[in-house]
Amino acid sequence: MIQYIQEILPALLSGTKMTLSIFFWTLICSIPLGALVGLGLIQKFKPLTWLLNFYVWIMRGTPLLLQLIFVFYGLPIIHIVFQRYDAAMFAFILNYTAYFGEIFRGGFQSVPKGQFESAKVLRLSYGQTIRKIVIPQVFKIVLPSIGNEVINLVKDSSLVYVIGLGDLLRAGNVATARDVTLLPLILVGIIYLALTAVCTIVLKLIEKRENVWR
Amino acid sequence: MLEIKNLTKRFGTRTIIDDLSMTVKDNEIMAIVGPSGAGKTTLLRCITGLESVNTGEFYWKGTKFDPTNTTQKDTIIGVVFQDYQLFPNLTVLGNITLAPTMVKKEPMTDVKKYARELLSRLGLEGKENLYPYQLSGGQKQRVAIVRALAMRPKILCYDEPTSALDPALRDEVAQIILDLKQQEMTQIVVTHDMDFAKNVADEIQQVKQIQ
């Protein structure tokens, strides 16, 4: 059995690399974009909030799987062609930005109005207020919800399987189908568990660091 | 000297302040008193630029100014809010040094020196690196006073400075306000507490409910 594991492990690890690549790039792009969307959602300029609400509604209201298929198999019909990996990134970033945007909107709204006023009478500009006072407070408020999405993203990344990207789940599935054994799928499960465990620990550490102030 | 001329403030069709004129002399303490709902806080919010006025003019030493103009870096008015509104994510020192360094671009070392001086004057030595949640209500208020003073305002305004404090601390705030007067700070205190107003104020401005 050990020998068999050693045989399929390189394939699984290469799949893990793809999973991690989608995971990290989605987070790196979606969190800052989500913060911007969240900031946009609390503005008083109505056309902007309508547009953003519409975007959030579409992204949260349809399956991510549909969005992936739409981008990779659908868009080429109207001559917009993405490479597999680019299609996955595009769909994931758009989708996760919408979720993060809603989380950040809630975070921005829970910063008391008095904090903005306090900053205003100290003559801080809007940008300085957002950077130095609002974002640090919002970050702390949204951390648990962001954590949830981060864990979800680890698992959601397996959806890229449908557009033929060689991620962790695909590697396991291929091995199981070929060798007629459950072992690869069990290993895949263990690797996902390990990935989410690492995420959980990192999130706990960040939360602990944020607890120096209340 | 701060002069306010013919100030009117409406919310929709409701008139809160009707054609009010008042003068705050240099180095004096002006108390604004009146029943709740009479518009004391609204008046303070107009003076501090948090509300725009429907009509009215503000003069500082005879020169007209607009309190809502936030681009003016030379602050005339400093504010201590009723609930202090310290920034919870910054230490005491961070709260105080943020605006002078970012808005006025003063060097951090100078600002820190001045902040420490103010902190010790208000009995807050050794609290520099604490976060607001680690302070008592009275200490928070004093930090809020120091934060406002660090911008070197010409006038310091307080919104209900005694309402969140227990009676023993009330006298302490009165003492702080009187001490600042000794250092030639002009102050405006909004309060519903007539005894407190009589204790500290040189002049009392009544605000009446408009029928």
Automatic annotation (TrEMBL), chain A:
Q: What is its main location?
A: membrane
Check the record and name the PROSITE patterns matching this protein: ABC_TM1 (PS50928)
The protein's matches in CDD domains, at most eight in alphabetical order, are given as: TM_PBP2 (cd06261)
Annotated TM spans: 20-42, 54-75, 87-108, 182-206
For this UniProt entry, the molecular function terms from Gene Ontology, in alphabetical order, are:
transmembrane transporter activity
* Compartmental location: Cell membrane
What are the record's GO terms for cellular component?
A: ATP-binding cassette (ABC) transporter complex
The membrane topology of this protein is:
Multi-pass membrane protein
Please provide the Gene Ontology terms (biological process) for this protein.
amino acid transport
Q: Which Pfam families match?
A: BPD_transp_1
Coiled coil located at which positions? none
Entry keywords, A to Z: Amino-acid transport, Cell membrane, Membrane, Transmembrane, Transmembrane helix, Transport
What are the residue boundaries of the ABC transmembrane type-1 domain, all occurrences included? 16-203
Protein family membership? Belongs to the binding-protein-dependent transport system permease family.
Report the protein name in the record. Amino acid ABC transporter permease
Source species taxonomy: Bacteria, Bacillati, Bacillota, Bacilli, Lactobacillales
UniProtKB/TrEMBL annotation, chain B:
Q: Which residues form the ABC transporter domain?
A: 2-210
Molecular function terms, GO-annotated: ATP binding; ATP hydrolysis activity
Transmembrane region positions? none
SMART domains given for it?
Answer: AAA
Cite the source lineage: Bacteria, Bacillati, Bacillota, Bacilli, Lactobacillales
Per UniProt, the keywords (alphabetical) are: ATP-binding, Nucleotide-binding, Transport
Name recorded for this polypeptide: Amino acid ABC transporter ATP-binding protein
Which Pfam families does the record cross-reference, listed alphabetically? ABC_tran
Check the record and name the PROSITE patterns matching this protein.
ABC_TRANSPORTER_1, ABC_TRANSPORTER_2
Taxonomic source organism = Lentilactobacillus parakefiri
Checking Gene3D superfamilies in the record gives: P-loop containing nucleotide triphosphate hydrolases (3.40.50.300)
